[in-house]
Write a structure and sequence with these properties.
The chain folds into two domains: about 70 residues, Orthogonal Bundle (Arc Repressor Mutant, subunit A), CATH 1.10.10.10; about 150 residues, GntR ligand-binding domain-like (Four Helix Bundle (Hemerythrin (Met), subunit A)), CATH 1.20.120. The chain is built from nine helices and three strands; from the N terminus they run αβααββαααααα. The chain is about 75% helix and about 5% strand. By secondary structure, it is mainly alpha-helical. About 25% of the residues are buried.
């Protein structure tokens, strides 16, 4: 019975997580336990276990006597998260550089060629997809499960903000140049250079997001 409950609450957590990331449950939304139980045809026990998982991940916040709400990411959160994830992904880039073999470099070459093509054609959605694959490849190559877990946890929080940093003027080409700098360092076996370039890349993302926010605000308040 315990295995069944665990399996069910994991399934419920996965479904709610996907709704949060898709925007179906936007930041600040209240999760009505009774309505969810009825809609999902489950009891309170697996639902509450799922909610505990999402609270632990930072995707929900629990308020005593009120219940759970979808977490909201503030500008302060972003200011605090980006330096941390920059350090972590920089560490991953160094580890990947130390472990990359010829086949790994060849696979990364293909990804970077795709990235260049997406940038040249202005296909931002496809660029995001390839960009994610490149970051994942570096993390996988680093082969450090604790590092991967820490990065994954922070990425979940960042996804709440539904960030669109590539819409900042000139950011697409800047991002591409930063990726190529990381890859160039890896090909040269320069772990420190790859780490520094990756950290710069992540910190520049934060600066681009500030610009996007400023531009959005200026349109709202001309």
């Amino acid at each position: 019975m315990r295995t069944l409950v665990n399996s069910l609450h994991d399934e419920v957590a996965l479904g709610l997580r996907e709704q949060i990331f898709s925007g179906a449950l936007p930041p600040g939304s209240f999760l009505d336990e009774a309505a969810l139980c009825e809609r999902l045809s489950i009891s309170r026990t697996p639902l509450r276990e799922a909610l505990k998982v999402l609270v632990a991940e930072g995707l929900l916040r629990h308020e005593p006597r009120r219940g759970c709400f979808v977490a909201e990411v503030t500008e302060r959160d972003l200011d605090e998260i980006f330096p941390v994830i920059a350090l972590l992904e920089g560490c991953a880039a160094r580890g990947a550089t130390c472990r990359a073999g010829d086949a790994d470099v060849a696979a990364l070459e293909v990804l970077h060629l795709r990235l260049q093509q997406c940038a040249a054609e202005g296909r931002i959605t496809d660029y995001y997809t390839v960009n994610h694959a490149i970051h994942e490849a570096f993390i996988t190559l680093a082969d450090n499960r604790w590092l991967a877990q820490a990065i994954g946890d922070l990425r979940k929080i960042l996804r709440l903000a539904r960030l669109q940093q590539l819409h900042a003027p000139g950011r697409l080409q800047q991002s591409l140049a930063e990726h190529l700098a990381v890859f160039d360092a890896l090909k040269r076996g320069d772990g420190a250079g790859a780490e520094s370039a990756m950290r710069t890349h992540l910190l520049h993302q934060r600066e681009a997001l500030r610009e996007v926010a400023r531009n959005h605000q200026s349109r709202l308040n001309p």
